[in-house]
Design goal:
Elements lengths: L1 H9 L3 E7 L5 H8 L3 E8 L2 H14 L4 E5 L11 E7 L1 H10 L6 E6 L3 H10 L2 E11 L2 E10 L7 H6 L1 H4 L3 H18 L6 H21 L1
Parallel strand pairs: 1-2, 1-4, 2-3, 4-5
Antiparallel strand pairs: 5-7, 6-7
Helix pairs in contact: 1-2, 4-5, 8-9
Amino acid sequence: MDRFNRLCDLLSPCNILADVGCDHGYVAELALKKGICKHVYITDISAPSLKKAKALLDKSYPENYTAYLCDGLKSVPQPDQVIIAGMGGMEIANILKKSVYKPIIGVFQPMKNANILRKELHLLGYGIKKDFVFYDRNKYYDVIKAELNFDDNYTALEEEFGRDNLSGNPDFQKYLSSRVKAITKALGAKDISFESKNELTRQLEQLKELITNET
């Protein structure tokens, strides 16, 4: 899947990568296959998911991984970098907050609340190096690469929508158009509340302005 390749392409070469919430282990396997890392820590809170990831890696890389059944980074030795994909932005932020150490480099793919994750990363002392939306198999995905103590000088608008998106990203423009259609449809609902209508109208005006500015 192109999604996994896009995520792995953002990883920096390293000795040890931690794939947090590894699910089936596809990202971990691809990182080893591409030679991005020499060893990978796979972690998941779900025993069945971790079992699937172990079965996958046992086929080709039995000596190149260590598995941890745990919540986030608890009980996991500090790696050179982490990747956390497929969770909500707040969930990713909470994993970093609860960790006894701060990973130096991280690639994050939040399924929602990317704006909240950007803000939390800044509060935790991270700077954002790459930050964009990409389209794969009928879905739009946010991806963020952050580094500890990196000075990014993000503006409030960039923190809300992503710097690379605002610098000219065709997939982001398509995402904006899809959101405009969805909000316009929601505004046409008969049972919409006054508060919801005002909030959706505000969002719609902001998105339309971004489309105008980028085109």
